[in-house]
């Protein structure tokens, strides 16, 4: 009975996570959001730039900030998730191994995310120093 409840609870958490992810994805691609971003351009008189970056450096900065803005909350969510896995493991070696793996990959992902952001900032600053 307890194992059924635990698997049912994990299933509910997974469905909730998917629902929240789909909600924010749909919010990001909603036409009103896209129109506010692209409102500064008149397609009748000019070719519109959907990226909103005039130079390659601005593009690198925009991509790095977008990836960071999406990645940092995901790292926080997976840190909480790994903590939840540790709590629900209750000494079970197999579940503890899963929790440790989740925590280690979350920390590795966070380090890669921060490293990529630092590298992007360094590249942009180096390129600005050249020109």
Question: Overview of this structure, please?
Answer:
By secondary structure, this protein is an all-alpha fold. It folds into 2 domains: 1-50, no CATH class; 52-131. Helix content is 82%, strand content 0%. The chain contains 4 helices and no strands. It has helices at residues 2-28, 31-38, 56-89, 93-130. Helix 3 runs antiparallel to helix 4. The longest helix is centred in the last third of the chain and has 38 residues, at 93-130. It is elongated, with a radius of gyration of 21 Å. It starts with a helix and ends with a helix. Residues 1-5 have low confidence and may be disordered. The chain crosses the membrane at residues 12-29, 62-87, 107-127. Keywords: Membrane, Transmembrane, Transmembrane helix. It holds the Pfam family T4SS_pilin. This is TrbC/VIRB2 family protein. InterPro entries: T4SS_pilin (IPR043993).
**What is the string of SSEs from the N terminus onward?**
HHHH
Percent range of helical residues = over 70%
General form: elongated
Please count the helical segments: 4
User: In this structure, how is the largest beta sheet organized?
Assistant: none
Number of E-state strands: 0
Pfam families: T4SS_pilin
Keywords: Membrane, Transmembrane, Transmembrane helix
Protein name: TrbC/VIRB2 family protein
Transmembrane segments: 12-29, 62-87, 107-127
Descriptive key words:
disordered N terminus; 4 helices; 0% strand; mainly alpha
Give a brief outline of the structure.
This protein is mainly alpha-helical and 131 residues long.
């Amino acid at each position: 009975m307890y194992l059924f409840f635990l698997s049912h609870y994990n299933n509910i958490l997974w469905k909730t996570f998917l629902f929240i992810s789909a909600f924010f994805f749909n919010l990001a691609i909603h036409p009103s959001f896209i129109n506010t971003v692209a409102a500064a351009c008149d397609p009748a008189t000019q070719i519109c730039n959907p990226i909103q970056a005039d130079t390659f450096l601005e593009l690198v900065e925009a991509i790095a900030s977008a990836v960071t803005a999406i990645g940092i909350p995901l790292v926080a969510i997976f840190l909480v998730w790994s903590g939840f896995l540790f709590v629900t493991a209750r000494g079970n070696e197999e579940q503890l191994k899963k929790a440790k793996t989740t925590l280690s990959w979350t920390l590795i992902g966070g380090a890669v995310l921060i490293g990529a952001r630092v590298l992007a900032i360094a590249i942009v600053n180096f390129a600005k120093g050249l020109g």
